[in-house]
Each structure stands twice: as C-alpha cells, then as structure tokens.
Amino acid sequence: MNEVAVIGAGVAGIQAALDLANHGIKVHLIEREPTIGGHMAQLDKTFPTNDCSMCILSPKMVDAERNENIVLHTMTEVDFLEGEAGNFNLTLVRHPRYIDPVKCTGCGDCMEACPVEVYNRYDAGIGVRKAIYKPHSQAVPNIVVRDAEHCIECGMCYDVCGPEAVLHTDEDKKEEFTINVSAIVVATGFETFNPVEKGSLRYLKIPDVITSLEFERMICASGPTGGKLRKLSDGRTPESIVFIQCVGSRDMQLRRPYCSCVCCMYAIKNAILLKEKNSSLDIKMLYMDIRAYGKGYEEYYERAKQLGIEFIRGIPGEIIDDPKGEITIPVENTETGDILQLKPDLAVLSVGMQPAKGAERLADILGLKKDESGFFAAPDLKLNPVISNRPGIYIAGTALSPKDIPDSVMQGEAAAMKAFIDAIKA
C-alpha cells in the first residue's frame, strides 16, 4: 500500500512527511488550520543562533506542497479510525474554505476589499485580520479562506475576485472521506497556557501585561507593529521590561508540575534581540531556575548576562496595578533576601506549553493513552519515545511532551522511519 498519514503539519509533521515522501512513500499530511507550519511560523527568530524562523520553515513548507508524494489536507480533522497496523482506515472531515482552491491565486484583492476586521489568532490578538484572509503572507497553500462566522455577506469579495474563486456558503460543504494507510504519525503540537487561569498576574486586566507569544508577534518584522515594541496602553515605546518565567509551568497549584523546556531560552532570546537593538533598555528576568540544557544554550545565557540583562532569582506572587496606572511587581530575590518593587513599562509572561486543543478527542479516536499532564504517552519514553501504545501509530514533537524545535524535528524524523518500516512491510 505504501501510504502513511501524518496528523499535524507543524515543523515535526512537515519533517516526517518530507522524510517519508523522499523515501517513495505517499503521505497524507493532515492539518486542521488553513495553512501548514504550526507555531514556528509565528516566531521571529530561533535560539541559540538567532536565525530567522521562517527562513528555516518556509522552504520546508514549500517543499511539502510541491512534493509529488505528499497530499495536503488543510482545514481537515480526523473523525474515525478502524483497522490495525498495516491496514488503517482513517476517516477525515474537510471543513469548508468557501474558496475554489483551483481558481484562487492568493492575490489578496478580496482581503483589501473586505470591510470586516476581527481578532487575528496568528498575531495572538495583537493585530486584526479580515473576514476573508490568509493567516500570513507565506501561507501554504497560498489560498485565502473566508470566515463564514464573521462574514457579513456584503458581496465585495465576490465583486473584486477576477477568477471568481470566492464561493457562497451553499457552494462549499463539509466533506467526509476515508483514506487507507499503513501507519500514522501524530504530530499535533501544542497550545500555550492561558494566563487568565492565574488571576494574580492580572493578564487581560492590565494592558501592558502580555504573553510571550504576543511579544513575539510584536517584535517580528512581519508582525502587526512592523517589529516596533509598543506599550498596549498608550502606544509608547517601553523603557523597561520584566520577563516572568514559569507561567503555567512547574506550578503545583495549577496541577502543572512539568517544565515546558523552551520558556527560559525563548525569553533569553527575546531579551537579547531587544538589548542588541537598544542597549539602554532596562531588562530584568524573574526566574525559578534557568534551564539552558541544549548545545550552545549555556553560552547563549552567558551572552545575555554580558549584554546587561539582569537575572533575578524569584517568582512574583502577583502583579499590582496602582492608581497611577503603573505596573508594580513585588518579588523577593531568593539569593540575597531583598524584597524588590519593580515598576516596568511592560511585563511579559513566559507561558508554558500544554496539549493542543482537541488532543483528548483525538486520543479517544486513535485509541492512544495520555500521560498525567494530558500529552500523548509513550510506553517506553527512554528507549522508544516515538512509539505509542497502539502498533502502527507513532508520536512526534510536542504532541508527546514540551520540547524545542531541533528536538521536535529529530522526533519527526524518528517517527517517519518507524512508519516507513510499516509501510514497506504492508
């Protein structure tokens, strides 16, 4: 049969699909979003090299679209599974895009004409998008999607579309179909912790308390502010920033005892990027422990300290919004015993990872076990971390546990080779 399904098209899923396709295996790359790429597409730079994130990811996305052995199924979710290793029948549901994918050229004329602006999830809410949109300029496939929920049916997108690619709601229906595959790779990724759950940090109550993902989109040159750092309260450029670590990680009160692995390093990365652009910027980082475990990570941490970034060992219990509108962060430096009252212009919450939305339902459909934190479980995490409890189904990337991009890519490659063996045996 020589066909494999890869569920999730972030960097781990794309890498798994490319490896399988380059070995002659037909791959069904399944993604519920309008574009492949996952969270990596939202990032500005990667640590510890400060390489452009999209410069690494975009060629992989294009290769996946152009590879004759890869079939992209965007806006598609798994609905049912039957069979066993070597002979799985996977039922998929394709949600309507309300766009003719053959006619659409991705020119963007419809987006310019659309009068509706709504919350842009890709920009983490810092920016807005239209009711007909592409998630970002390098989206793959290069096709817009019409948001039927927010569309007001003004008809402007129909009028300006030369190829007449925009479809009415009755012209594009939800489609159910089944594929037959030898093996399945699950690479469904993660979502970030919502700090509203930790009310003492006043997220969404104080405008200048933002998440690390919102911060990423703000400093990205292709982001909604063009890479310019701004306070959300008044639009001014901040002169002081405090990063608060372990928000939604290593927190027994929230029943989230695990470390999210990347928070220390991505906060250090963002601090370095800011300090290199503006050496006078006052940057402090409040941490529990710095976990710089990868190759070149400790050197990266030392580089941050040499640039003048101040690391304070202590996690605040709350953020206070005083009557003057200033942020006050009381914290104890546990190394010196000093009680500090920090008053930054901007507070950035380094939010951790948690299982992707829908992971629980997918686990039930595929018959996979989960660990106590809600991630997919591997029976032998040390020797065979990509093998699940069900033969023929493999797990890669942050679907299994929090990890950085290099580790996610390596697990994608490992899962691909396990699936390749099943495919050639079928």
TrEMBL record:
Q: In which pathway does it act?
A: Cofactor metabolism; coenzyme M-coenzyme B heterodisulfide reduction; coenzyme B and coenzyme M from coenzyme M-coenzyme B heterodisulfide: step 1/1
Family as reported in the entry's similarity comment:
Belongs to the HdrA family.
Q: What class of enzyme is it?
A: oxidoreductase
Pfam families in the record, alphabetically? Fer4 (PF00037), Pyr_redox_2 (PF07992)
Q: Which UniProt keywords apply?
A: 4Fe-4S, FAD, Flavoprotein, Iron, Iron-sulfur, Metal-binding, Oxidoreductase
Q: What is this protein called?
A: CoB--CoM heterodisulfide reductase iron-sulfur subunit A
Say what the protein does.
Part of a complex that catalyzes the reversible reduction of CoM-S-S-CoB to the thiol-coenzymes H-S-CoM (coenzyme M) and H-S-CoB (coenzyme B).
Organism per entry = Methanoplanus limicola DSM 2279
The family database entries (SUPFAM superfamilies) matched by this protein are listed as: FAD/NAD(P)-binding domain
Q: What is its EC number?
A: 1.8.-.-
The keyword Oxidoreductase is annotated on this UniProt entry: yes
Q: Name one GO molecular function term.
A: metal ion binding
Domain of life of the organism in this record? Archaea
Subunit note: The ferredoxin:CoB-CoM heterodisulfide reductase is composed of three subunits; HdrA, HdrB and HdrC.
Checking InterPro entries in the record gives:
4Fe4S_Fe-S-bd, 4Fe4S_Fe_S_CS, FAD/NAD-bd_sf, FAD/NAD-binding_dom, HdrA-like
Domain 4Fe-4S ferredoxin-type stretches: 95-124, 141-171
Please list the cofactors this protein needs: FAD; [4Fe-4S] cluster
